[in-house]
Each structure stands twice: as structure tokens, then as C-alpha cells.
Backbone:
């Protein structure tokens, strides 16, 4: 057992030593693997952060109900009271046309031009906000239909449409992410496999002699598997560093931006658990790439006398 | 220890390198394998070391039929045989110590045991003080002796050597042969392929003669006394003589 451990330690040290003896090639390979691993992880973080950022108003679905011009304010207020009786309604705010016009004058900068108007072109309107727990798509839809059915109502506007669209885009991205991860994972396998193939070629004489004196395929393969694992670990470590650096770098400006919009949002990076998973995936990809490569290329090297 | 029974070997797309060759070698025998270049000497050794399998016939080595041994058992099989190559096949970028230790390392031998055996093995070939040197820092004869130390470190019962004295001066060649002789004296079956008839004559051991893939003479075992001329294999000062006797 201790011999077995000693052999593995020896294979590991041997692999480390060989990598250290050709630093440039090793660094290049690790960088390629690191970038290939960092890309999908960074995308995943973007999607995750975007979901968190939009999460605040995800359920805050507001309706703006515009009445037809000429609808009396009393009628609008009556309907508002009726609406407040409905279950699942959080708030209903009545904005009379006069007030809407005043606000519009103040905010739009068209004050002078609007003053010239004889009649108020704006209708009375309601702001309707359902309770968050009653904001499922079906409930929202049924509320919309209920509001539209009133004869006094001109337009029912659902203010959360853009949030929905944004979330839909995120969903597409998230799904695309899986595809991207698979492709880049295969890329890592190819990079490790090819690097190992070159190393097998370089060490052909050594492999032949080892087999000549009775080294089994498993014995010959061992150091290459360690090399693959080391590449994977190195690449994953670099990817984690890149992500960590990126989050540090962007975090401040994102937080500042969020504060401007009155949000407490801050950019989330990788948790320790995420980092562990990333490193494990890197190691497994490296090992598997080496396994495939040695399986294909080692068997062909048979000793000749 | 070694027996060939009607063995033929055909390399891919080639005529037969060996045709119906039969002979056997017992434990503690030292045998020379001779014949012109291309006669099939290396082929015989490759069949014994299971670097090749026979096309026809049976090769038995240490109780194993090499023709039917599953591939995955070949490494363990090779560990029972010591092989010395003409081009010694040393790892030039590793110290002598590592080269000699390799057969034990691949057999997962405990480190302490390896240490002991490497020293003993280097002692046997008189290279104890060179264990840290790289093969490139050694003379050709010393490199050949490192190859022998590596071949015998597993204490094999069979030792085979392909032209081990090929490019050595006569004195060095003689010295190498004496090393082989010592292993024979402790019961190892030794088979040495060589066309150095002069050297072979000096040892007077049994001689197996090949010519163009066929067995010309299987020789007769010389028991006990070294340096006596074998009965059926008369001295052959020049290689053309083999041709003449056909
Ligand atoms: N791997 C191979 N593939 C095809 N033919 C081969 C191979 N090895 C040897 N041969 C052929 O088989 C025949 C016997 O070769 P072998 O190497 O056994 O001769 P040898 O007696 O060892 O010669 P030498 O004294 O020159 O080493 C030769 O004709 C050679 O060309
Ligand atoms: Mg030969």
C-alpha cells in the first residue's frame, strides 16, 4: 500500500517536474484551458447577476389603466373602489387628468406649449398593483381581461412587459450556456489530449524502454494522467483567478451604478463551493483528456529490439 | 527453460525470417547464437522476449507458451527475463541508478528493496561508483555493463543478449562475456547472439547456428567445464565457412 502511494507520488512529482522544465509550453496550455473554462463561468455569473438584479421588480407588475376621454372622475373613483375589493390587489391609485397634466408639464419641459392647449388631452388613469403572490402570469392575464372589460377603459398597459422580455432573454442565455459549456469542455479535452499526444511522441524512446523491461500500459499511462490532471487544475485555478479579478474590477462600478438607481445590488462572484466545483471539473476534464489520448496513442508504441 | 518447437516467423509482407527451427536450452546453460547477418538471430531473441510472436510452432519460455499468452500478461512475462540489447537501450537523460532500477520500479517494488538491489546489481558489473553518472558520461563498455545490470536486477532465470559486444574492443568484449559467464555459473540460462566467432571460440560453449532462417546446428550442451570446444560446433574462424558447409 505504501509502495502504491509512493509510486503515485513519484508519478505526480515526475509530471510536475516535466511541466516545470518546459515552462512556456506549460503556461500557454494552462492559459488556453483557463480561458476556455472562464468563458462559460463568466457567462453563468452574468446571467445569475442579471436575474438577481431584476429580481427586485420581477414580481412588481403594475397596470396603468387609461380611461376614455370624457369619463367623469367620480366614475373613475367608483371603479377604483370596486377594484380595491377584488382579492389579490395591493394598491390602486387614482390620478385625475388635471394632476396628470400638471405632472406632465413639470416633467416634460413642454410646459409652455401645453399651456396653449384649450382642453386637457390626458384622461384620468389608475395605477393598479397586484400583490406579489398574485402575480402569476395567469392571474395577471385574468386581471388584465377584467380591466379591459370595463366600457370606460381605453387602454390597459402592463408596465412589466420589459422585465418579462428581459427574463425571457436570460432564459435563452441560460439555455445557450449549457451548449457553450459542453463545447468549451470538449475544447479543453482536445487541448489536453493534444498536449499529451505531443508529450507521448517526445517520450517515445522512454516509453519503449519502459515497456521493454515489463512496464504495463497502466504504469506507462500513470504520469500522463497526472499531467492531464495538473493541466486541468492549473487551468481551473487560472479561470477562478480571472473571474475573481473581473468581479473585483467590475464590482465597484456596478455597485456605484446600482446606488444611482437606488438599488442595493452588488455583483456576486464565485462562492467557495462554486470555485471547488470549477476546480473539480477542471481536474476531471484534464484527467479524461489524458485518458483518451493515452488510450489512443500509448498502445501503438510497442518496443522493438 | 527455453524451447522452440518447429518455430517459423514471418514478418508482415516478408518471406520467412525463421523456418521450422527447433532447439531447447536448459537452466544454467550458456549458449551462443550465431549466423550471418540476417540469419534470424535477433528474431529468435525477439520471440523469447515476446517482442514478436511465432507465426507457426511453439515457443515455450519458463513454462509459458508465448504464442497464446494474453497481451495484458506480457509485461509480467517480460519481467521474468533479462534482456541486453546491442544498442543497450538506456535512458540517456537519467542517471545510471534510475536506469538500472527501472525493471523494479515498473514492478512496484518497495523503494528500500530497490536501493539494495541496484547497488548489488551495479556491484556485479563493477560500476558501483557510477550510479550518479549519466549514461552519456560513460564509455561504451560501461554503458553495455549498465544494460547488463538492468537486465539482471530482477534476478531473472533467463538472460538473453543481442550482440552485447558488437562494438567493443576484444578485451572489453571478453570482459562482458565473463560477466555473462558468472550468471550462467549461478544457474541462469544465458543465450547470447553474436557473430564474433573469435570470442565464441575462446569460450567453447554450446553454439546454435542459424543460416537464412533455418537451423544449421543446435549444438550440444557443454556441462560444467568452461573453455572447452563444443563437439558438434567446430571452430568457424570465418563466417563464409557456414555458407561453404551447406
Ligand atoms: N521488423 C521486421 N520486419 C520485417 N522484416 C524483418 C524485421 N526484423 C527482421 N526482419 C527480417 O528478418 C530477417 C532476419 O532478421 P534478424 O534481425 O533476425 O537477423 P539477424 O540474424 O539478427 O541479423 P544481424 O546479425 O544483422 O543482426 C532479415 O531478412 C530481416 O530483414
Ligand atoms: Mg540482429
Residues:
Amino acid at each position: 500500500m505504501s509502495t502504491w502511494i509512493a509510486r503515485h507520488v513519484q508519478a505526480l512529482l515526475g509530471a510536475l517536474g516535466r511541466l516545470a522544465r518546459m515552462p512556456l509550453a506549460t503556461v500557454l496550455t494552462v492559459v488556453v484551458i483557463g480561458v476556455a473554462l472562464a468563458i462559460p463561468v463568466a457567462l453563468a455569473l452574468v446571467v445569475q447577476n442579471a436575474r438577481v438584479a431584476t429580481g427586485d421588480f420581477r414580481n412588481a407588475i403594475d397596470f396603468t389603466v387609461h380611461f376614455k376621454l370624457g369619463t367623469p372622475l367620480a366614475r373613475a373613483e367608483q371603479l377604483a373602489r370596486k377594484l380595491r375589493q377584488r382579492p389579490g390587489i395591493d394598491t390602486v391609485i387614482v390620478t385625475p387628468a388635471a394632476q396628470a397634466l400638471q405632472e406632465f408639464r413639470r416633467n416634460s419641459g413642454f410646459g409652455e406649449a401645453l399651456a396653449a392647449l384649450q382642453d386637457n388631452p390626458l384622461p384620468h388613469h389608475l395605477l393598479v398593483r397586484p400583490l406579489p403572490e398574485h402575480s402569476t402570469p395567469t392571474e395577471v392575464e385574468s386581471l388584465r381581461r377584467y380591466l379591459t372589460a370595463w366600457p370606460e377603459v381605453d387602454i390597459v398597459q402592463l408596465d412589466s412587459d420589459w422585465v418579462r422580455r428581459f427574463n425571457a432573454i436570460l432564459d435563452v442565455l441560460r439555455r445557450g450556456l449549457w451548449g457553450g459549456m459542453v463545447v468549451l469542455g470538449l475544447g479543453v479535452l482536445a487541448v489536453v489530449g493534444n498536449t499529451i499526444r505531443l508529450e507521448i511522441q517526445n517520450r517515445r524512446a522512454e516509453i519503449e524502454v519502459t515497456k521493454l523491461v515489463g512496464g504495463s500500459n497502466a504504469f506507462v499511462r500513470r504520469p500522463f494522467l497526472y499531467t492531464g490532471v495538473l493541466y486541468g487544475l492549473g487551468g481551473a485555478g487560472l479561470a477562478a483567478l480571472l473571474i475573481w479579478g473581473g468581479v473585483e474590477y467590475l464590482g465597484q462600478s456596478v455597485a456605484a451604478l446600482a446606488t444611482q438607481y437606488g438599488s442595493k445590488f452588488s455583483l456576486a462572484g464565485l462562492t467557495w463551493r462554486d470555485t471547488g466545483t470549477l476546480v473539480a471539473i477542471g481536474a476531471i476534464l484534464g484527467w479524461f483528456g489524458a485518458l483518451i489520448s493515452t488510450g489512443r496513442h500509448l498502445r501503438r508504441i510497442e518496443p522493438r529490439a | 527453460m527455453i524451447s522452440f518447437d518447429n518455430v517459423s516467423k514471418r514478418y508482415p509482407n516478408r518471406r520467412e525470417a525463421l523456418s521450422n527451427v527447433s532447439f531447447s536450452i536448459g537452466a544454467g546453460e550458456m549458449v551462443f547464437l550465431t549466423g550471418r547477418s540476417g540469419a534470424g538471430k535477433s528474431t529468435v531473441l525477439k520471440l523469447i522476449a515476446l517482442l514478436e510472436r511465432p507465426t507457426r510452432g511453439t515457443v515455450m519460455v519458463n513454462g509459458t507458451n508465448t504464442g497464446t499468452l494474453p497481451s495484458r500478461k506480457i509485461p509480467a512475462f517480460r519481467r521474468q527475463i533479462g534482456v541486453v540489447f546491442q544498442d543497450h537501450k538506456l535512458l540517456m537523460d537519467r542517471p545510471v541508478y534510475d536506469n538500472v532500477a527501472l525493471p523494479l520500479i515498473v514492478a512496484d517494488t518497495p523503494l528500500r528493496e530497490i536501493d539494495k538491489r541496484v547497488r548489488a546489481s551495479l556491484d556485479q558489473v563493477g560500476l558501483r561508483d557510477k550510479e550518479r553518472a549519466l549514461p552519456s558520461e560513460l564509455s561504451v563498455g560501461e554503458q553495455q555493463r549498465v544494460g547488463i545490470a538492468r537486465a539482471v536486477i530482477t534476478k531473472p532465470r533467463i538472460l538473453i543478449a543481442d550482440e552485447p559486444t558488437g562494438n567493443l574492443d576484444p578485451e572489453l568484449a571478453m570482459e562482458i562475456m565473463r560477466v555473462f559467464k558468472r550468471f550462467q555459473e549461478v544457474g541462469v540460462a544465458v543465450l547470447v547472439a553474436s557473430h564474433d566467432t573469435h570470442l565464441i571460440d575462446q569460450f567453447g560453449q554450446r553454439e546454435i547456428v542459424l543460416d537464412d532462417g533455418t537451423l544449421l546446428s543446435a549444438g550440444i550442451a557443454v556441462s560444467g567445464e568452461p573453455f572447452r570446444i563444443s563437439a558438434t560446433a567446430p571452430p568457424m574462424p570465418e563466417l563464409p565457412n557456414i555458407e561453404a558447409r551447406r
